[in-house]
Amino acid sequence: MNSVHIKTQHQFSAIGLLSVGVVFVCAAIITLFISKTTPLLVGILFLLGGTTICLSIAAIYNPKISMTLTDMHLQQHTNKGGWAVKWKNIADINHVYLTNLTDSLPWVGIKLHHYDAFLDAICPRMASKIIVEQRILLVMAFKYQPVDKYQLEDILFDDTPYITETGKRYTGLLAVLANRMTYQRELLGFDVYISAEELDRPIPDFIGLARRFLAAAERN
To answer: Taking a C-beta distance cutoff of 8 angstroms, is the pair 79, 61 a contact?
Structure first.
């Protein structure tokens, strides 16, 4: 199969966000010239405009491609690095659901056969990004767990050294990430997660595409 590149939704909204920031700045300048008795309002408008412009510039400089699907692997791209998983290491890819709820979350879940290759290939910056940005998933899963098996403060940033099935030992950020993956597999059924914001198509379409690549890899 030919490689497929998935674009992030952040790129689609960056120009609009920049336009909003420019409007705020222009409004601040106009207000400053029309009325010199509203410095607080002018300051707020400048702050909003500057913040919005900075956010839009950051979005523009983020990678335009968020995901790549090839014959060999599924790969994510971000401004802090990325991760890659070979198809042969993927056991399942599907919607993410909370226990006892029928509506799916705006996330795609990937269940791995083994953690070693994923952990060995990920950089500390990317590991930190996943740990921070995906904590909301663990919080939601914890809220809907069928029994109070865990305390949230114990599992949110668990840095206990992690030992894989092959006996490899991970510490620090990689241990936190590996432990997080373990908890999320138990509570949500998956190890690696992709937000709908990183996709340029509906989640069912992306899952169908990924499964076709997975099936093709299994046949080879």
So the answer is: yes
Distance CA 53, CA 31 (A): 19
Cα distance between residue 9 and residue 197, in whole Å: 6
Question: Shortest CA distance to 190 belongs to which of 117, 114, 96?
Answer: 96
pLDDT in tens, 60-116: 555 576 889 999 999 998 878 889 999 999 999 999 988 666 677 899 999 999 999
pTM of the model: 0.74
SS3 104: strand
CA distances in angstroms from 122 to 54, 116, 177, listed in the order given = 28, 10, 10
Chain centroid to Cα 67, Å, comes to: 11
Structure tokens at 195: 């937000």
Structure tokens at 143: 């809220």
